[in-house]
Amino acid sequence: MDVYTLVFVCTTYLSFSKILGDSPKCDDSAETAKIVKSCPQNNNEWNKAAKIKGCEKMSHSCSSFVYHCVINAWGNETIEVCAPPVMIVGNVCAEYNYGGGRIQRNGNVNCEECPSYFSNESYKYQECYEYVKNVKTSQTTQLTTESKDKESTTQGMIYLSSSLTPNEESARLYQDTDTPKTSSHIIIIVICVVVGLAAIAVVFTVKQRSLTGKLFACFKKTVLQNEDLNAQPSEIVIESVEEGLEVKTVLLDKRTHTFIQDTFRELNES
């Protein structure tokens, strides 16, 4: 193999390695990326969409700027973007990677009808776009089901509420709103009652002691007054008795003397 043949082989290999591998990062492509509802289904639609996008008129620092309509990395959206094309191999779909700023193969989304193809010809293989539609339909169905479940639950609650009497409804609403707070309310009430009883006990004890002191002082005063009063009448009575005895004695002596005189007078007269 001569030198020219070797150089040709190496150049060809490097060229195809760039095409077959992931395209180089193109930061300018991120500014053109836009989520769309659907991608073109044929060559005419592709050309019209490419013309509207106008990638070739945009300034960029990438190796090339070509219109693409591919899926995203999660396989749930389709994206229009201007980026360098790349060869997709391995029966998979092409994707645009925001973080890498490039078109690349999506190893998670298989495409049975896809041979090796250039990424800017993705419209030829609608299987990749159908995959996105199925994912969206599945997500929509799931959301609808969840919404219906919530609606059924809400209707059930409304029916339950409508079937209750006003008193039962009031009781249920009171229970729903106040049940989480009932325990805390009970604790607060118990604490208030205990504190109130303690305060009443303290006040009662203080007043009782004060009243007992006053009663004791009054009783003592009364006893002392009674002792004084009892002492004075005794002396008065004793003095009165003594004076009475003297009076009686004097009267008795006078009567006796008079009787004797009368007796002697009668004897003398007889």
Structural commentary:
- The protein has 270 residues and is an alpha+beta fold.
- 64% of the residues lie in helices and 13% in strands.
- It has helices at 3-20, 29-32, 43-53, 127-163, 166-269; strands spanning 34-36, 66-72, 78-83, 87-88, 92-97, 102-110, 117-118.
- Strands 1-3-2-5-6 form a 5-stranded mixed β-sheet.
- A hairpin with a 4-residue loop joins strand 5 and strand 6 (102-110).
- The longest helix is centred in the last third of the chain and has 104 residues, at 166-269.
- It is rod-shaped and about 195 Å long.
- The N and C termini lie far apart (214 Å).
Write the layout of secondary structure elements.
Blueprint: H1 3-20, H2 29-32, E1 34-36, H3 43-53, E2 66-72, E3 78-83, E4 87-88, E5 92-97, E6 102-110, E7 117-118, H4 127-163, H5 166-269
Parallel strand pairs: 2-5
Antiparallel strand pairs: 1-3, 2-3, 4-7, 5-6
Unreliable spans are 6-21, 233-238
Computed Rg: 62 Å
Approximately how much beta-strand content do the residues carry? 5-15%
Strand order of the largest sheet: 1-3-2-5-6
Mean pLDDT: 76
Q: Distance between termini?
A: 214 Å
Coarse structural class:
alpha+beta
Q: What does the oligomeric state look like here?
A: single chain
Q: What's the total count of β strands?
A: 7
Major sheet, described briefly? 5 strands, mixed
* Helix proportion range: 55-70%
What characteristic shape results from the CA principal axes? Answer: rod-shaped
- N-to-C series of helices and strands: HHEHEEEEEEHH
Number of DSSP helices? 5
